[in-house]
Structure prediction request, 446 residues.
Amino acid sequence: MEAAESGRPGPAASSSSSSSSSSSSSSSPPAPAPAAAAAAAEGEKTGPAAAAMRRSERDGGADGRNVGFVLVHAGAGYHSESKAKEYKQVCKKACQKAIEKLQTGALAVDVVAAALIELEDSPFTNAGMGSNLNLSGDIECDASTMDGKSLNFGAVGALRGIKNPILVANKLLSEAQKGKLSAGRIPPCFLVGEGAHKWAVDHGIVPCPPDIMTTKFSLSAFRKNRRKLELAEKVETEMIQTKKRREVTENTNVTASLDTVGAVVVDHEGNVAAAVSSGGLAMKHPGRVGQAAVYGCGCWAENAGGHNVYSTAVSTSGCGEHLVRTMLARECSVALQSEDAHQALLETMQKKFVRSPFLACEDSVLGGVIVLRCCRCSMDSESALNAPALLVEFLWSHTTESMCVGYMSTQDGKAKTHISRLPPGAVAGQSLAIEGGVCRLRTSVN
Prediction:
């Protein structure tokens, strides 16, 4: 394959908004247009950033043939300016690891797992090491992955004592591809609790002592949140008690580690894969499983074929209960088969999430998604008229105050990172932001 070609966003990111490019890696976010800010404050769309990707002179892969693209997120929630550098750095490292794997010819399902390991290993994310502690002071993680080529899925929930839960989810997926077990038993695709831990150890995944997974930051947040809960439980009336607990929960979700990390990938064959990993909400009940482990809710990946014109991959983040009740990952994947990806994602976030009848009683609907879709196409230039290419459209959207993303193709010298924020005046949980871009990966002609 030849060098990839990047282009300015097509319909997926077109808008009359004057907001600046979302590909910026500077610490300051793009300034939203006044019209977009007003629309977002009313729960409507914000203008997507122009997200122009510069043409690169690099080859598509280490050997000139292997191309691909990765988009990652470090959670939809609140990203303080003081830690913006750290959030972007972990996204950058995850992208770089994924690209290294793609350049060696690795398939999407293994690449997406490599990206997630980098995200889980960061103490600044709420996944793997440094995850939120539950009410009992323990770390229980959820993770899942889906392969768009085979449509196989692997997931773990409420898993303790494993440093990288995505490894277990990926192992479940790969073991299922080997076929039935002895006596014709169906291999598991979703395991929880002690059973998941035992299966992981039996399959060569090394356990991790709890004190290693707990960081100073996560322990400090747990102690602070526990004190708040103890004070809330001392109120006299049940009505005030319920109100206080709600306020504590809302404050906890804002100030604690962000919920869920994820990645979506397309490889040189056009295969897509998605993955997601989370430590869950702070002070959650022991045994609680969020969207990061649930089929159709945390991630989704599906190659083109049959009725699908596009290959699609989705990874979600936010309040797990909201994402589970709306099956947002699957809903977004279906919507992306429409002609206009940006409009399709916008309408899905509005109608199937923010204003979903399944969340009608919720005052604030919190979540975010990263998506990509790709298809085969021809290059535009006359010199490469007959050269096939992969057209990759990528987008992110969130109803939370912010969402940190990073993306990179095999043509790029470095990853691009961005903290997307709702415009001033917008109400988190009622408004949404949406941004994205387009990348062309030129393939060789046999």
In short: Residues 1-64, 240-257 have pLDDT under 50 and may be disordered. The two ends are 10 Å apart (CA to CA). The chain is about 30% helix and 20% strand.
